[in-house]
Specification:
alpha+beta; 46% helix; 2 domains
Length: 131
Amino acid sequence: MLKDWFCEALSLQPGEELLLPAASKAEATRLRNRLLKLRDEYPDQADAESISIRVTLVKRRFFVALRREPLSPTVAFKRATDGSIVRVTLPTRERLRRIAIQDGLSPEEIEEVLGSAEEEEEDAQKEEVQP
């Protein structure tokens, strides 16, 4: 059932939230932890990481909030001294390695995948956004 709710959250528009009711703070925390695990195991990590998961209190009732964030948490922008804005991404090498091992790739295939991922990261870091 939680997997269905997580998939529903993936269809939200940026800024929208899905609130799952919980009977207590402890239950909300358990639900949040299970949803965090589901998010970590989701095949499309870039999409899954755009969903933030937290416990919240609304009118004295506990909820687990799944919110579609406007950007992935692995992406940020840096303003240079000349005023230009450069896209910056967090290293994902270890995360990719973990997923590749879970998918049953051989060591050679993993190195091939990680090599192409590094090239993509370098290209993304070079990409500039005009202010």
